[in-house]
UniProtKB/TrEMBL annotation:
Belongs to the PRAME family. LRRC14 subfamily. Keywords: Leucine-rich repeat, Repeat. The keyword Repeat applies. This is Leucine-rich repeat-containing protein 14B. Coiled coil: none annotated. InterPro entries: LRR_dom_sf, LRRC14/PRAME. The keyword Hydrolase does not apply. GO terms for cellular component: cytoplasm.
Length: 519
């Protein structure tokens, strides 16, 4: 659907579409028109014009999210266009702003905010080449270091050293860009462009390196911390992290798989868990917590009860929760505030059906996203599920992949889902009757694709027809067999794959050495 453009925006597009003319004329443009021209240039992917607009930016703030978001002149939000041409032009323009503004009077720019960019699966930019979070981290670090080298080697105007611009960014660090980012952070105080890390994600990184770099980011400013794949952080390391570093502004925390494992708990571990809970309680802004694939049986209360602020997002997928854990969640003060909840990997119908529905009813007035993948929800449970979901009138997203449901049950469920007014995204499983008879759940990865694809397509068509007949074309229904899209994994999957092969090789070598010793 085409978005309306104001006459001002159409004029701006016409102006920037002639790059040579636009670049020559920038000096005579009114300062308040720069944001308008920037969005028009971004839409048309006019890299050279973008570069020159940023290089001559006349305002105190340059905020990507606000500039590309919904504006009066053009309501379409472009912040999900992580176009490589445009973003590289922005960042090189920023570097040249520093180099080409010798007069302190001209230097009005104080804050550059790059945190508003959203990495999505489908890109609408013409070049089709994206610059994800990892690449943005890499380029900004590189430009900061190049800028320092240039300033040291050249006779610069003294005014250049008076420039100080805070660049707010969500850093994404892996083994491959670690050294570069560390150097940029170490030399931050000398560089006119000051990297200010608002969110930090770490994948494929040795623990020692993670601890070193996290201290360099200035944790007192950090709002989001994600330690995700191949960072071998266990409970004792988490305790050290929380004891040695304070995160006063932290709002969102994601911990890697197997951070906790209560199956081998000792008295020391219990003390450690209590301490971690208390430290999280000191993070008064914390409202989002993800601890998937840890073993937390019977310990959820110990971990979450010290929190003083109710959680809005909780991911405890595949955490082996028992009845006591679910009862705590349902009766805790968190329940009434949960906007996003992931309980995947728990056998809800068999273990705690009534207490789960109590939790659902408590969070129903605010719940926006619910994920129940691999929860053994069968045809006989669908009516109960519909009853539980009925009060969730604000639900926007419902994911229930990996449940043994027939095509008939899915049709029944979809007829109900049409009635949820805010619903936008549904991820449903391949119907059980599309798989060979006797398939067992949860289905192993090797068997996931071994279903009747023609029959599935036919069922998917029927499900979409149900949505269509209810005038719900706004709902996207899909079956991403191997899970939802993750922009960070997509961007670094080559490195991730190489890391996994290396880990497998090391394990194999250890096993072979053990066998040799035995023989």
């Amino acid at each position: 659907r085409a978005t309306m453009k104001s006459l001002r925006f159409i004029s701006a597009e016409a102006f920037v579409s002639n790059a040579e003319f636009a670049r020559k004329s920038l000096s005579s443009i009114a300062h308040n028109l720069f944001p308008l021209l920037f969005k028009a240039s971004y839409l048309l992917e006019q890299g050279e014009v973008i570069h020159d607009l940023v290089e001559n930016w006349p305002l105190v703030e340059f905020n990507m999210g606000k500039l590309l978001g919904t504006t009066v002149d053009y309501q379409e939000d472009l912040s999900h266009r992580t176009c490589s041409v445009c973003l590289e032009s922005c960042l090189t323009g920023l570097r040249d702003y520093v180099l080409n503004h010798p007069s302190p009077y001209m230097n009005r720019l104080k804050v550059v905010d790059l945190t508003g960019m959203k990495d999505v699966e489908v890109q609408f930019c013409e070049c089709k080449k994206t610059m994800g979070r990892w690449a943005r981290t890499q380029l900004l670090s590189k430009l900061c270091l190049e800028l320092l080298v240039y300033l040291q080697q050249t006779q610069c105007n003294p005014g250049t050293f008076e420039i100080s611009i805070d660049v707010l960014i969500d850093l994404f660090v892996t083994e491959r860009n670690y050294e570069l980012v560390v150097q940029a952070l170490l030399k931050k105080c000398y560089c006119p462009l000051k990297i200010c890390c608002v969110a930090f994600r770490s994948d494929n990184l040795a623990l020692q390196k993670f601890f070193y770099i996290i201290k360099l980011t200035d944790p007192s400013l950090l709002r989001k911390l994600e330690i995700v794949h191949n960072v071998r952080l266990e409970m004792e390391h988490l305790e050290i992290l929380f004891n040695s570093i304070h995160f006063p502004l932290l709002m969102s925390l994601t911990l890697p798989a197997r951070t906790f494992n209560v199956r081998r708990f000792t008295a020391t571990d219990e003390r450690m868990l209590t301490n971690i809970g208390e430290k999280m309680g000191e993070m008064t802004q914390l409202t989002e917590l993800s601890m998937s694939f840890s073993v937390l049986t019977g310990r959820i209360q110990k971990l979450l009860s010290p929190l003083k602020t109710p959680l809005k997002t909780l991911d405890v997928s595949n955490c082996s929760l028992n009845h006591a854990d679910m009862a705590y969640l349902a009766n805790s003060f968190h329940a009434n505030h949960l906007e996003a909840l992931d309980l995947s990997g728990h056998n809800i119908p068999d273990l705690y059906p009534s207490i789960f529905f109590k939790l659902l009813s408590h969070s129903s007035s605010v719940l926006r996203s619910l994920t129940l993948e691999d929860c053994n929800i069968q045809d006989t449970h669908v009516n109960m599920l519909i009853l539980g979901l009925s009060p969730c009138q604000k639900l926007q997203e419902f994911k229930f992949l990996g449940n043994p449901l027939s095509s008939q049950a899915l049709k029944h469920l979809f007829t109900f889902l049409c009635e949820l007014p805010m619903l936008k995204n549904v991820e449903f499983p391949v119907p059980r009757d599309c798989y060979p008879t006797g398939i067992t759940y949860p289905i192993e990865d090797a068997s996931l694709c071994r279903f009747d694809h023609q029959k599935y397509e036919s069922v998917a068509e029927e499900l979409n027809l149900i949505l269509l007949q209810a005038n719900r074309e706004d709902v996207k229904a899909s079956t991403p067999l191997f899970g939802s899209y993750d922009a960070a994994v997509q961007e670094t999957n080559n490195e991730l794959g190489a890391y996994l092969i290396k880990s497998f090789k090391e394990t194999l070598e250890k096993f072979t050495n053990s066998l040799n010793k035995m023989s």
